Inverse folding.
């Protein structure tokens, strides 16, 4: 049977795969709906009939990508997240990072998380709690807007020009928003310093400290971040935590065969 060809917005030749597109549309929709949606709601959101989405839902449920909860609502399972973690480069990154992250948490009494940029959003791949009775942490597996997370800015600032353009193009496609006018200056400041240290973009009283993790070409593939909070009875200062986090990021970079850029060396003198 002949396959219908079409031109995508990018001008590249593509092949129409309506069944696959329906399934992916459902997964992408449910990714934004943690409470789940019914068949009728899914059909309405995707501007399709219930009969069109029904077969897709049955297939996705049988393959374990979605599950049906109470009130006939469908929601994503953790299968895709597990697949990401099992992907060889990601699996190695997590395996090398976790022991270092645990040592950082013990030394600094702060939580930390490892994030990457995927499909225009920051995804938290690994997370370690602080060994204290109280603290602040970012939930494992959670996602957030690239422009609302230090992880996103730090990775962007240390990507190659081509990688950054591709990431921003994907972010624009997903969000439908324009790139902030001051983004170039913001990323340049982070690049000069080597890392970001500033008040949280989302939570008052928290200071984000974030260092890049590099691959063998010296391009950032993720970032190690601590949402720093000041404990009244601790002797560990914010500067101490920053230095410990830098050492941890460099240790992870070395463990995966990455190359630390000169900008991180400059950060040692700040």
């Amino acid at each position: 049977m002949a396959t219908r060809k079409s031109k995508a917005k990018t001008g590249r030749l593509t092949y129409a795969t309506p069944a696959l597109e329906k399934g992916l549309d459902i997964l992408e929709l449910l990714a934004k709906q943690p409470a789940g949606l019914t068949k009728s709601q899914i059909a309405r959101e995707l501007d399709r009939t219930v009969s069109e989405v029904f077969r897709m839902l049955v297939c996705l449920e049988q393959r374990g990508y979605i599950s049906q909860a109470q009130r006939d609502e469908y929601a994503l399972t953790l299968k895709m997240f597990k697949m990401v973690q099992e992907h060889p480069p990601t699996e190695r990154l997590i395996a090398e990072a976790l022991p270092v992250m645990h040592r950082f948490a013990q030394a600094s009494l702060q939580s930390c998380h490892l994030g990457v940029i995927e499909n225009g959003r920051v995804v938290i791949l690994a997370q370690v709690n602080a060994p204290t009775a109280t603290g602040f942490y970012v939930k494992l597996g959670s996602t957030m807007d690239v422009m609302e997370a230090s992880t996103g800015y730090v990775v962007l600032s240390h990507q190659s020009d081509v990688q950054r353009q591709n990431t921003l193009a994907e972010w624009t496609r997903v969000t439908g928003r324009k790139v902030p006018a001051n983004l170039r200056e913001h990323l340049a400041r982070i690049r000069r310093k080597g890392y970001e240290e500033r008040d949280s973009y989302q939570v008052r009283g928290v200071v984000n400290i974030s260092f890049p993790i590099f691959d063998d070409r010296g391009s950032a593939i993720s970032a190690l971040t601590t949402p720093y909070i000041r404990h009244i009875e601790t002797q560990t200062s914010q500067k101490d935590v920053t230095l410990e986090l830098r050492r941890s990021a460099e240790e992870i970079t070395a463990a995966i065969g990455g190359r630390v850029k000169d900008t991180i060396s400059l950060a040692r003198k700040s």
